Amino acid sequence: MTTATIRVYLFKGFERLWHWTQALLIILLGITGFEIHNSYHLFGYQKAVMLHNTLAWALIALIVFAIFWHLTTGEWRQYVPTTERLSAVAHYYAVGIFKNEKHPFKESEASKLNPLQRFTYLGFKILIIPVQVTTGLLYMYYNHWHEWGIFARLDLTALLHTAGAFALISFFIVHVYMTTTGHTPLAHIKAMITGWEEIEAD
User: Fold this and answer.
1) Confidence (pTM)
2) Which CATH number fits domain 13-82+112-185: 1.10.287.80, 1.20.950.20, 1.10.472.20, 3.40.1260.10?
């Protein structure tokens, strides 16, 4: 039996532009970053470093614009964590989804993210990204540490930056998988392109 759905406009233009631009920048930062670590040879070390630094500044600029947008539109409220229905959503993804059970959370313009997504995306925004930006900038300006009064260890900074990169890769893999869990495998991706999400009708 086909499930009836309704179309709801969830994702605004800037939101979609920011999402896809951020994804592209993170992917390219990963490609150039692992080349800098000598994992493979694609651009050459010097060009990889130059590209990585340029992409990093582009991501920082995007982050600044995104923070401004979230604060001025009130969209920051979407990431406020809640435990309401958290266990039900966790159970759904762990067990219920494989039994074709109904999702316990319904998206709306006022609440786009389920409780599990809120915790995950909040961690991405206040933990993973800040660690990457901070350690990346420290690494980029290592020659200025002494005059700035910074006496940290470069190897530890590099280790934290690399650990953050693997955390980003893990987030990316899980995020891509989760996009396939809609009422069709491409429904969520289509929504982030068009802005319109198809939600199961009551």
Assistant:
1) 0.89
2) 1.20.950.20
